[in-house]
Amino acid sequence: MLTTSQAADILNVSRMTLIKLLDQGRIAYEQPNVHRFVRLADVLAYKDERSKKRSAYFQDSMKDAEIAGLLQTNIEEYESALENARSRRHP
User: Residue 28 and residue 11: Cα distance in Å, rounded?
Assistant: First the structure.
């Protein structure tokens, strides 16, 4: 179990933002007394879900920009360059 401060650190958000997520029911928590506690697995699941949503949004935005003619290269070339950069950073 994690404190709200620990969970907020993992998600790289403020503690108040985490509290809002808890209040909205986006992350489950337990409150045996005054303090709330969250499971590490729930925090990591939320983080993974958030990452996937951001990636999907980015991909959709890039495709829209390509269709609108706003990109100087096509999306496949950009994705290839991005993967190459990531592989150099994380061998």
Answer: 14
User: Which residues are paired to 3 by β-bridges?
Assistant: 37
* Coil, helix or strand at residue 73: coil
pLDDT at 35 (0 to 100): 93
Domains of the chain: 2-89 (1.10.1660)
Residue 75 contacts residue 61 (beta carbons within 8 Å): no
β-bridge mates for residue 2, sequence order:
38
Query: What is the Cα–Cα distance from 57 to 27, expressed in whole angstroms?
Result: 21
Spatial contact of 18 and 11, defined as CB atoms under 8 Å apart: yes
E-assigned strand segments in the chain: 2-3, 37-38
36-78 pLDDT, tens per residue? Answer: 999 999 999 999 999 888 888 888 887 877 777 776 666 677 7
The answer to whether the CB of 1 falls within 8 A of the CB of 8 is no
